[in-house]
Amino acid sequence: MEVYTYAFLKTPPVELELPLGIGQLVQLVPGKQICAVVELDVDINRLQGDDALLVQAIVAHDRTLGELFQQQCLLPLRFGTLFRSLQALQEHLVTREAEYLEKLDRFVGYGEYILKCLPCPEPEFEISTEVRGKAYLLAKKQRYQATQAFQNEQSAQWDWIRGQVTQWYPQAIASDLEDQSHRIFLLVHKQEEALLYERFQEWQQTCSAWELQLGDALPPYHFV
């Protein structure tokens, strides 16, 4: 029987409050010093054959990891991670124990924060239908210049944001999206969360051509 697996974590020193997973409460499968968070009887093929069920399952996967992450440091696994049997999973835990212990020690106290950078729309520059001749050509030139100036300023602000992030968070991972927006994944110690939000406010105030959004602490999905 395949075993749906959410995460790896150190064997808990105290009993965890195990959350509801995709369809039932998750369970812990012990190795030696490492445990796996699993759910039995998850039919991935059925989920993948129904878009609505698939979306619900993905949301449940992330929610489950988030609830566990509030209790203990963990290494999150991607949605759909399966092991062919409980025995295969336990053998994996023993084989990779040293690697997972090292990563867990490295991530203790840290969370992943997502900084979204959304470009503001270009300012509207309407030309009256009553404008004719040279005045119309001048207005078109001014509209073009204003558009170019805004785009240049927006580009310069993005370079500044990226430089700030690189300066303070050298492990950051940037991802460019198709709509010209950007996502930056930050690995930050929770004790420095207040400082992160202070910097975020400074970035937003400095960069009026961008709308910035900063999420709450998540498991270190992109740094495992």
What oligomeric assembly is this protein in?
Answer: single chain
Q: Which structural category do the helix and sheet elements fall into?
A: alpha+beta
Kindly provide the radius of gyration, computed on alpha-carbon positions and rounded to a whole number of angstroms: 24 Å
Describe the biggest sheet?
A: 5 strands, antiparallel
Number of strands: 9
Shape: elongated
Strand content: 15-25%
Q: Count the DSSP helices.
A: 6
Mean pLDDT: 92
Name the helix and strand elements from N-terminus to C-terminus, one letter apiece: EEEHHEEHHEHEEHE
How much helicity do the residues have?
40-55%
Termini separation: 27 Å
Low-confidence stretches: none
Task: Give an overview in words.
The protein has six helices and nine strands. The chain has 224 residues and is of the alpha+beta class. The model has no long low-confidence stretch (mean pLDDT 92).
Lay out the secondary structure.
Elements: E1 3-10, E2 27-30, E3 34-39, H1 44-48, H2 51-69, E4 75-76, E5 82-83, H3 86-95, H4 97-107, E6 110-119, H5 133-168, E7 173-176, E8 182-189, H6 193-206, E9 210-214
Antiparallel strand pairs: 1-3, 1-4, 1-5, 2-3, 6-8, 6-9, 7-8
Keyphrases for this structure?
224 residues; alpha+beta; 5-stranded antiparallel beta sheet; 4-stranded antiparallel beta sheet; 22% strand; GvpL/GvpF family gas vesicle protein; GvpL/GvpF
What is the compact description of this entry?
The chain has helices at residues 44-48, 51-69, 86-95, 97-107, 133-168, 193-206, and strands at 3-10, 27-30, 34-39, 75-76, 82-83, 110-119, 173-176, 182-189, 210-214.
